Amino acid sequence: MGPDKNLLERWRTTELLLLGGSAGSFKLLFQMVKLLPADLGKTVIIIIHRKRNFFSEIAKLFAENSRMSLREIEDKDVLKKNTIYIAPANYHTLIEKGGYFSLDVSEAVWYSKPSIDVTFESAADAYQNRCMAILLSGANQDGAEGMLKLRKIGAVTIAQHPEDAEMDEMPTAAINNGGARYILRTDEIFKLLHTQ
Amino acid sequence: MSDTSVVITSTQITELIDLVRRVHGFDFSGYTKASLKRRVVRIMQLKKMEFYDLKHTLVNDQHFFQYFLEEITVNVTEMFRDPSFYKALNLQVMPYLSTYQHAKIWCAGCSTGEEVYSLAILLREAGLSNKSFIYGTDINTEVLREARKGIYSLRSIKSYAENYQFTGLKGSISDNFTILYDAASVHNELKQNTLFSVHNLVSDDVFNEFQLISCRNVFIYFETELQERILELFYKSLCPLGYLCLGSKETIRSDAFKRKFKVINHKENIYQKIGT
Questions:
Q1: Rounded to a whole number, what is the distance in Å from the CA of B99 to chain A's nearest CA?
Q2: B194-198 vs B132-138, strand pairing mode
Q3: pLDDT tens for residues B64-74?
Q4: Smallest Cα distance from A196 to chain B, Å
Q5: Is the Cβ of B32 closer than 8 Å to some Cβ of chain A?
Q6: Which helix (H) or strand (E) holds A174?
Q7: Is the peptide bond before A114 cis (omega within 30 degrees of 0)?
Q8: How many whole angstroms separate alpha carbon B237 and alpha carbon B243?
Q9: What is the pTM of this model?
Q10: Alpha-carbon distances of A112 from A51, A118, A134, A141, A145, rounded to whole Å
Q11: ipTM of the complex
């Protein structure tokens, strides 16, 4: 499946782009951040698993290489267009209906905090089908449930092709539970993000 | 890991908030909805309940309400969480606390007490044990019972040891515990100057005057309006030039309160009360 016409149309109209990744996704996310134009016209949220107490290093590195404005999420930040938000370590990031974030320190999901499932599920509630989620490489099953929930309410869900993923467990889980509407090769994902 | 078959609507959340307020006198309406919903779904999954069962049990079973309260409020905590915060507190606040004849400290939303004992250790290291007192409060009697006991699993103490290392404090965290098999009990000496009691930030008022208030990772569960109401409560509970500590991702956003507090440490969200 390549980026078909329907997918391109949905990309153009989507308001919120969710990117989830774990082991093996760092480089990809870094390249995406570099690639996205300053005037993308969408809000981007990145949830990447990382070690506890590995505080803002990722956000700092990403910010230095991003053309879009980029920040690590603080509690009650309002979601703005043309901004990339990075989920902080040791918190879950929830999206509220009014278009703002709230953080949560409750139990880890799949040993992960931030959990991709948690953010995707709250995005499904808050943004319904106005969002698009891409799930990348990872060595556990976080994100699959969230993808399924998003797909059920009509949001576009994309899993990185397991053959292209450094660790294929995460995208594979989303494909197996029916959470992935599209399965795209890495270059197809980049092509999609490049489309104006 | 979650069960996607449990679905609950915003209307049902509102219905539940109303029910809990009417039957148990707890007002969750200022809580953030996404996390509230997550907690409710979690309870329904754990107890294998439908929404109707949940409402029915909440009305008819007082014990269940205690459980509900415990699960709804997030009680995930640890000792020396965000070690850099304790480091900053030690360097930037302890010297000032030592100038008071008596330092009263309020740890609001203290859950099972880990933060209270972390503060107690910090005070002891600063030589302030004998002139300071820490009040730990929470809305939940069950977690307060745990806090009073001050007994934690050896496994968690091991994970807190790493935090402790990063605080720059001397010695080791285990110096503060008596270890028995797989449990670690906080030394009585640390407990002496602590008091745990019920206080509901949403509905209860000022109960003392403090030199330092720590309320970390509590505001995240509240809507902005409720946060501001509680900021007012903290403001009134602080002595002139007293300190307020929020969690690392929680900042004072309201312009009115920005004028009433001076930022002492931007990264760790340590504030000082100024003006009147």
A1: 33
A2: parallel
A3: 999 999 999 99
A4: 32
A5: yes
A6: helix A169-176
A7: yes
A8: 10
A9: 0.94
A10: 9, 10, 18, 10, 14
A11: 0.92
